[in-house]
Amino acid sequence: xxxxxxxxxxxxxxxxxxxxHIYGWIEDKRILGNIIFLTIRDGWGKTQITVKREDKSxxxxxxxxxxxxxxxxYGRVNKYGxxxxxxxxxxxxxxxxxxxxxxxPTGRTPASLPKxxxxxxxxxxxxxxxxxxxLRGLALKLSREYFNEIGCTEINTPKIISTATxxxxxxxxxxxxxxxxxxxxxxxxxxEEMVMGLGMVYEIAxxxxxxxxxxxxxxxxxxxxxFEGAYINYEGAMEVLTGYIKYLLERIPREGKExxxxxxxxxxxAPGDIKTIKYSEAIQIIKKEGKEIRWGDDLDSEAxxxxxxxxxxxxxxIDWPWSLKPFYIMRKGDxxxxxxxxxxxxELSSGGTREHRYRELKKNIIEKGLxxxxxxxxxxxxxxxxxxxxxxxxxxxxLMLILTGRENIREVVLYPRDPETIVP
Length: 424
Known about the structure:
Blueprint: E1 5-6, E2 19-32, E3 35-41, E4 46-52, H1 56-64, E5 70-80, E6 83-95, H2 113-118, H3 120-123, H4 127-149, E7 153-154, E8 160-161, E9 173-176, E10 179-183, H5 188-198, E11 200-208, E12 221-230, H6 234-255, H7 257-263, E13 275-278, H8 279-288, H9 301-310, E14 314-318, E15 331-332, E16 335-336, E17 338-343, E18 346-353, H10 358-367, H11 376-380, E19 389-395, H12 396-404
Parallel strand pairs: 1-2, 4-6, 7-11, 13-14
Antiparallel strand pairs: 2-3, 2-5, 3-4, 5-6, 8-10, 9-10, 11-12, 12-19, 14-17, 15-16, 17-18, 18-19
C-alpha cells in the first residue's frame, strides 16, 4: 500500500501512469457491456473509474455500490485524449448511502429551496449549489486579501453586548446570567474604538436583527463586511468601498471561472467610477415619476425601483437627512456625511463620517432619544484623543446575490435564519 500516493481528484493530471489512493462519492454509474464507468467526486474535482468484468471482485462490488456512497480506491491513473481515468487495483466502500435519497444530488430532478436547506450537506453535491458556495468562499478569501493589502488589521468584536448599537427595537434579547444582554446588530461602536490605535480595521462576521421581514433580501442572521479607518471622511470611505467592489469584480470572474461555467452566469463588470447622486436629487427623480414623497422620507421599495430604472447598476446615494441616520454619523445641519451603496434597487452598504467629538456625540445620542448613560463605556474613549474617522458595513449575503445571479438570499446562505426558520 505504501506505493500509492494519496491525492485529491483535482491533482490527477499530475500523476499520469502513477499509483494513487483517492476518496470520493459515486455521483453516477454507467454499465456498458462488460465495463462499469463510475463518476467519482471529492469536493475538489472529479474523475472516471473504469472497472472491467474480468476484475470480478471489484466489478461485483462496484455493481452493488449505491450512488452517493463514499469509496476508497487504490489504482493507476490513465489518460487518453482529454479523459483522465483511474483503473482500480483495490476498492473499498467507506460509507454507504441509504436510498431513496431525499433530494437528487445530480441536480437533474430539481428540489425546492426549503428542501435544499433541510438537506444542505447533501445539496452541496449538486453542481450548481456547490458552485454558489465555492464562490462565496472565494469572495471571503478575496475580501480579506483586499483589506489586508490596503493596510487594515482584521479584528474580532463581541457578539453578546450590553447596549444596543443603534437603538431601536430590532434586537435579540439574551438572558446573560440573570442580566439583560443583546446579540450584536453590528460591530459599529467597537470598530470605531479600534481606530484609536490600529488606524484601519475590518471585520467579517455574523450579526443579528430581530426584523420580521419576509422578503427575498432579508435575514435575521447575516454576514457583514465592516471597515473603519482613521483620518478619513465619508469620501475616503467611499473610495475604499469602490476599490473593494472593483477588486472583487475583477478577480472573482477569473479565479472562479469554473464555477461560473456551472452557473451559466456572468457577474457584472467591475465599475469604473461608481455614480453618485445626492439624496435631494434622488427625491426629485422619484417625484418626476409620479410617486408622492417628501424630503426627509426614507426610500421604500417602490422609490428604489424607480431609481434602479433611472440609474441602474452600482451607484451611491449621499448626504442623507441626519434624521434618517444613527447617532454616530457626522451631522452637517439637517444633513449628514453619509452614503448608501446601491445595486439597482438593492441596498448593499451604508456608511459615513463618524462623529469623533465627545460633546457632540453625547448630544447626538440624547437627540436621538437614547439614554447617554447606557453608552458611557463607549463615550468615555472619545475623551482621550479619538481621531476623525469613517467607515461602512456591507451585507455579504446581498453581494452574493449579485455575484451569483440568484434571486433569493436564502440560496446563498448555508443555513438561513428568518422569522420562521430556526432549524436545522
